[in-house]
Amino acid sequence: MRLRFLLAVLACMAAAPTFACGPDSDCQLGSRHYRIAMPEGHDGKTPVGAILFAHGYRGSAKGVMRNRSLRRMASEMGVALIALKSGDDDWVIPHAPRHEDADGSVEFNYVDAVLRDVTKRFAIDDSRIMASGFSAGGMMVWNLACAMPNRFFGFAPISGTFWLKPPKICKSPVASVVHIHGDSDPTVPLGGRQILNTHQGDVMEAIDMYRDFGNFGQETRLQQGGLTCRNRRNNEGEILDFCMFKGGHSFRTEYVRFAWNSLKKAGQF
């Protein structure tokens, strides 16, 4: 009896996933990790879209998952929330403080590994993943838009831009970007500011660079959901939206939902 019980336990252990992880435990990737929350009541089989979220300065994947409002919103939308963790206190991207010489490859390789891993472990539709992030996370998202445009259906940087200056050119194909920013942000000002030996970039320089790179046409101005938006579209149907809200350096989960719906309405998925 004891032998049969032991064999049964071993069989169950062999059959159970050795990589169990979720919103309250890390999904390990070597020395790095991420966390994920699937929609409430998900059957574990039906593929769903996902929001890949990059935290702010000194944030964490655990901290993102503590944002109950963000988790609830993603679940209500029927999508997974994937929380990244930076390689340092901040994202190791070009011109960032203490990482001025970085080319971003450390983080890009990590995100690529997360995308490959999460679509193996969970029922994620890899054609419906949007990258978003706030503050330093928004800076990370702009870099992803330039370096990995084909891995996401769109990008939603919030209150963050490139460090120092935007790159001269981004990788093809052109992606859709919905940038959201406070009109009086003192932490990441629209015109940028000095931080240690580097400088936060000018938001409009990033928008203008991507406008020219993607051949985005004439802008239209709209009031949408408390946001004042300048919307552009190119011949391929991609969108470049620059939306501002009244206020400073603040984050609302509704901005993420707004970006997702804007991309969906534009026919990105």
UniProtKB/TrEMBL annotation:
Q: Which UniProt keywords apply?
A: Carbohydrate metabolism, Hydrolase, Polysaccharide degradation, Secreted, Signal, Xylan degradation
| Highest taxon in the source lineage | Bacteria
- Check the record and name the InterPro entries matching this protein: AB_hydrolase_fold, FaeB/C/D, PLipase/COase/thioEstase
Q: What is this protein called?
A: Phospholipase/Carboxylesterase
Q: What functional role does this protein have?
A: Involved in degradation of plant cell walls. Hydrolyzes the feruloyl-arabinose ester bond in arabinoxylans, and the feruloyl-galactose ester bond in pectin. Active against paranitrophenyl-acetate, methyl ferulate and wheat arabinoxylan.
Q: Mind telling me which residue stretches traverse the membrane in this protein?
A: none
Q: Name one GO cellular component term.
A: extracellular region
Q: Name one GO molecular function term.
A: feruloyl esterase activity
* Principal subcellular localisation of the protein: secreted
| Protein family according to the UniProt entry | Belongs to the faeC family.
Keyword Signal attached: yes
Outline the extent of the Phospholipase/carboxylesterase/thioesterase domain. 106-195
- Signal sequence region: 1-20
One Gene Ontology term of the biological-process aspect is:
xylan catabolic process
- Which locations, inside or outside the cell, does it occupy? Secreted
Q: What organism is listed for this UniProt entry?
A: Roseovarius litorisediminis
Keyword Acyltransferase attached: no
